[in-house]
Amino acid sequence: QVQLVESGGGLVQHGGSLRLSCAASGRAFSTYAMGWFRQAPGKEREFVARINWSGSNTDYADSVKGRFTISRDNDKNTVYLQMNSLKPEDTAVYYCANSYSRSWREVRSWGQGAQVTVSS
Hints:
The protein is mostly beta strands. The chain has strands spanning 4-7, 10-13, 18-24, 34-39, 46-51, 58-60, 68-73, 78-83, 92-99, 107-110, 114-119.
């Protein structure tokens, strides 16, 4: 069972930047796609970004396209989410997840989440 641990959340002002990290346990990190999701208070969890096993293919929600960048370092078993030009509506708990295959299919495991708060 892969364990996913997010870090890097916090409080930032409107227009600021944060980088989230998600460290995965185990030796098979490079064999599965990874993704980021978020859940704001009172709302359903939503897709933010995903990346295939090698990092050659990424996909973003329209709401973050051009502002957020997902990347991965397979040597460090870590996936990142660089968030720039943050807005108050980006405030949410951010979760990383892995999938069952090298390209994204469905969520296999979730991390515990990292709070991101953007002040206006």
